[in-house]
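Appendix B, Record 12. Input sequence as logged:
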Amino acid sequence: GKTVELVRDEDVLDTWFSSALWPFSTLGWPESTEELSRYYPTSVLVTGFDIIFFWVARMMMMGLHFMKTDEGKPEIPFHTVYIHALVRDAKGQKMSKSKGNIIDPLELIDEYGADSLRFTLAAMAAQGRDIKLSTSRVEGYRNFTTKLWNAARFCEMNECIPRSDFQPTTLEQTLNKWIVGEVARAADGVTAGIEAHRYNESAAAIYHFVWHVFCDWYLELIKPLLEGDDQAAKKETRDTAAWVLDQALHLLHPFMPFVTEELWGARSSGESRSSLLILSPWPDLSGLENTEADTEIQWVISAISEIRSVRSEMNVPAGAKIEAFVVSRDPEIERLIGAWQPEVSRLARLQTFDTVAAVPEGSVQVVMGDATFCLPLGDVIDLAAEAARLEKDISKIDGDIAKIDAKLSNEKFLANANPAVVEEQRERRSDAEARRDKVSAAVARLRGAA
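Logged structural output:
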């Protein structure tokens, strides 16, 4: 209750003004240190949109005031400001202790790993949108980390050892020519995304390459080469697989530094690495695309994918081996079938994969370019019953779409609902439409075959 005169401590700055000195005070300013000379000015400031004036503007003001070039001109502390999204909970709500919806990053790291969390945030960092974080998303990218690790184990088990003198421009095998071109495209996508600060696009490019191109297709398609008797083809494939994995580690390193550095060091048997991965030069892979190899392997992939899709749509038992025939007058299609018959048959679970002059009776048909794929399924499934089942699915999907349309056409709902809920309803409608189109196509195939 006593009147006390308070005096400001002369050595303490207001929080934001103290923070404003951060770019250079952390490097030893006001002393002329070696660190200050080497690292100032910095390059990119990463921040949220809510403290642009409180902090970013003040850092620029203080930099211009205190820091000068050798010619005495004011020097800004950074040339680029990257304004990132805010991390919210899975429902789009701001995290709050009182709501109990806080996700502790340290707990996520303990359970799923730092790399998985880091990649999750990068993959979701789309410009102009907040990040809706949930543990299921982090778990999904933990699975991606496991996929990468298993790919490295596969390469190790098959003696795919990195070689410093590997030349990706001298390859003979079509599969190997194709994959080095895919690596070059992935590198272009990752590099462009990083340079434009579109980290979600970079993450998507390397994720797609590692999981869907390298693991799902290349490692599966090279198994016959690795198990075959052609020693030259085997050696080339081993060297190529090792080189491709190295490039993938390079491109993944900014997003997953720990696992990539670990694999980089662990895979150095035979030749010691010249440096840590973090100190290695960024890949420059221009000029490695091969149009002919791309066209051939993409045809193989599309053929397998189309047959797998039909099997799934028609509810064909996963273990059942079925027949497949191709109707085409293109001699190139016949050559492709002859060259890739074992691989397509193995990966699409086929008894037969050959050309015929006419569509066999009772066949489900899929048109792919100049070829018509025919799958005689009459002896495997009840075509009429399967069509009826799928038509029921269409009716159910139409009902779901009608309910969503009723909500979205309700002005009261649109005015009162959380924007995130409205957006969720629109996404659900879009997904339902896509699902209905797919099922409708399957019904048309079945009715055509019956």
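The longest helix spans residues 419-449.
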